[in-house]
Amino acid sequence: MKRPETFSADYLFLPGFLPEESACFRLNRNQLLCVFLALTALTYGLTHWPQPALFWVNLTVTVFYLAFTIYKVVLIWPVSGNENERQRNSCQNQVALLEDLPVYTILVPLYQEAEMVRETISALDRLDYPAECLDIKLLLEADDISTIEALRKINPGPSYEVMVLPPGLPRTKPRACNEGLKQARGKYLVIYDAEDRPEPDQLKKAVLAFEEAAPEVACFQARLNFYNASQNLLTTWFTAEYSTWFDLYLPGLARLEAPVPLGGTSNHFRMDVLKAIGGWDPFNVAEDCDLGIRLYRRGWRTRILESTTWEEACSRLSDWWRQRSRWVKGYLQTYLVHLRHPGKLLRELGWLNTLHFHFTVGGLLFCLLLNPVYWSLTVFWLATRSQWLCSFFPPAVFFLSGFCLFVGNFVFVYTSALAVFRRGQDRLVFPALFIPVYWLLMSLASWKGFWQFFFRPFHWEKTTHGLSRERTSR
User: Fold this and answer.
1) What percent of the chain is predicted at pLDDT more than 90?
2) Which pairing describes strands 134-141 and 160-165: parallel, antiparallel, or unpaired?
């Protein structure tokens, strides 16, 4: 292991990154003007014509819900069947015949992970890839003395390099990854988190996938799932969500060659492409989602890798709450960053892929924020049968709203159960039927993320790892 040392570097933006695409500021002047005009028009309408104004707002939201429901069904349905076993076996045979493997860089950002580093090193050592072809960079903060000391005691092999980052802000994962990218020497690069357990042949599968892919494919996103799915009800619901997202939703986007918002780990990149676009935005707390959109806008494509990385699901509500609010805040950052110049976005993505972007990033945000409002209205109406509330739901709107409430939610519950069933996790199917309770938690965490966007935009809320290990040891 190379001796840890602190180095100094310009940690803000890498060459190739356009500062105007950074989340370092929230809204540009045109966006501020649009927000001001929208709020002014809404306030004026509610003041002078409250009932018509609320009706049109309600109608707009209802049509959006309907469109979003249909979109998700169309996206998920074609990939919801069984996997092709013959194709998987053929891939395994080809992987076994690979020779002359290229150097592969692995970035592992670590912060306050002293209790996890031994498991992290063990998971990386299990990778079926020649040690001399591995360039593993463990990225640490200068003040994280406990993790640095833990690594010194372990003393991993020569494939590992400990990089202690220079002090500076923002203290985020993408800033650390940019530092690692500067020193990377592989042909391909992948990111793993501290608790990740990638399948041993994942790097070889990625090499094979890149060799067989079209030249414009610059990234493969491995599927993510959890190894502590049955720890409690929260981890069960979290697993159902992950299975739906990575096994159905993202493959559906990739099948349509739409922009794919990447997951936070197990993204495999062509090194030259990643450096050419300037790596990650250090100010975006959902840097993975942002990078997936930027890749597409620059003409590159993302595919799904038929390999799984097993992670640890947050088993405590407080940890899950912090992680979820950070994700929502980052999605909001990403959505607004790419909407700074709507005309340019439309030219680069085209009409159809612009709609994909709005539904995938913006639509998900709006649903999470609006859901508590409409659930509250439903409960209020059931309790009071208010005629005032009925005036905003004439028959056509009431029918559409009822369709979204009953049919749409049924489809999403069914999809969650289907996703875990396809994963062979039959015992999770029944708890997945009660996942609407989890949606409520998601919406409440989303409102926290929305608040933080304005008051703590770059704050990275740390997720505690190792709780499933602690539970097992007890």
Assistant:
1) 66
2) parallel
